[in-house]
């Protein structure tokens, strides 16, 4: 009798595994996943031999080992949730400006200080001058010294310069029945691979079928890093050995995406090579080769916000070889200054679409002008 009960327990556990696997397979909609291979249902469902039963029966009935597919957080309201992460230096900047604007006497010297504060916060010279000119004129016309009114004016000027009408959506709509290739570029260490992983999570959470392409073949660890992001949300990663041609990996990824009926193929690239010209040639080739199969719907340039104006100059080179359609500003939770958002948009003429606010898997938020300006002006805590 005991044998019979034990056998039933084992068969029930095996059935549990089978169910969990099938369920997660449907949820993520991918074909061959390493997690799926790990537990072939047919083998598990074999009637257990007496010895197996004995071993199993001696142990506590164990939980079925379902693959650890994570459920990412929804993106709505992320900027609000992560607002406290925005570097404290940003709220210091907002408060500093307000204090200056509320000075007893708004003379030439104070206006210069206001401009300096904007420049120190990484707002480029063109916008810093424009903000000061506009504020100055409006303060004079209104003749106001009311702090609430001054705050409103500052908020309006910062909002205007950030251009709230720019389209900040990520285009992930491919041609009819074809995957949308999204290319991710940027200098080394900017956060490309991490951002690919974070975006994949968001896409999966929104019900998209995603394939990742590890076109950074410069370091073996790069593909490994991307795979670990993919594994967490059950997204397959197309990768080749270190030193393989990045363009062919990118091509293979799009092909794989097409064959698997994926909605989006995210292609991670290298940020460093022996020399800059080589890297740019390579990126140009990656772009051309992908487009032999499908037009790229979005090219995201990843910029580390903490590198300020200097990082911006380096990033500009990338926009010369790829048609950058959006910027992801990472590490805004670090020592970055808020004004860099303004400078980036001005220099590149493309919108900041997403912001990275931490190393955690869901620490990526859609950039919203209003929420960002509120955080600057009202502080982050
Ligand atoms: N604090 C913080 N760290 C981040 C953010 N985004 C990325 N990082 C960290 O930045 C480091 C570099 O990120 P990667 O994604 O490896 O950068 P990469 O551009 O792929 O680098 P290469 O492949 O070497 O060119 C990692 O330690 C990330 O965890 C962010 O928004 N905030
Ligand atoms: Mg990388």
TrEMBL record:
- Encoding gene, per UniProt annotation: ftsY
* Protein's UniProt keywords contain Hydrolase: yes
Q: Matching HAMAP family, A to Z?
A: FtsY
**How does the record classify its membrane topology?**
Peripheral membrane protein
Under the heading InterPro entries, the entry gives: AAA+_ATPase, P-loop_NTPase, Signal_recog_particl_SRP54_hlx, SR_rcpt_FtsY, SRP/SRP_N, SRP54_GTPase_dom, SRP54_N_sf
Q: Where is the composition biased (Acidic residues)?
A: 34-46
| UniProt keyword list | Cell membrane, Cytoplasm, GTP-binding, Hydrolase, Membrane, Nucleotide-binding, Receptor
- UniProt protein name: Signal recognition particle receptor FtsY
What does this protein do, in the record's words?
Involved in targeting and insertion of nascent membrane proteins into the cytoplasmic membrane. Acts as a receptor for the complex formed by the signal recognition particle (SRP) and the ribosome-nascent chain (RNC).
UniProt domain SRP54-type proteins GTP-binding: residue ranges: 351-364
Q: How does it assemble?
A: Part of the signal recognition particle protein translocation system, which is composed of SRP and FtsY.
Q: What is its main location?
A: membrane
Q: Which PROSITE patterns did the record assign?
A: SRP54
* Protein origin, superkingdom: Bacteria
Q: Which parts of the sequence are annotated with region: Disordered?
A: 31-74
Q: Provide the species name.
A: Salininema proteolyticum
Q: What is the residue range of the signal peptide feature?
A: none
Enumerate the subcellular locations listed in this protein's record, separating them with semicolons: Cell membrane; Cytoplasm
Q: Which lineage do the record's taxonomy fields give for this organism?
A: Bacteria, Bacillati, Actinomycetota, Actinomycetes, Glycomycetales
Claim: Nucleotide-binding is one of the keywords in the record: yes
Q: Which residues bind GTP?
A: 186-193, 268-272, 330-333
Catalysed reaction(s)?
GTP + H2O = GDP + phosphate + H(+)
Look up the EC number in the record and give it: 3.6.5.4
Q: To which protein family does this belong?
A: Belongs to the GTP-binding SRP family. FtsY subfamily.
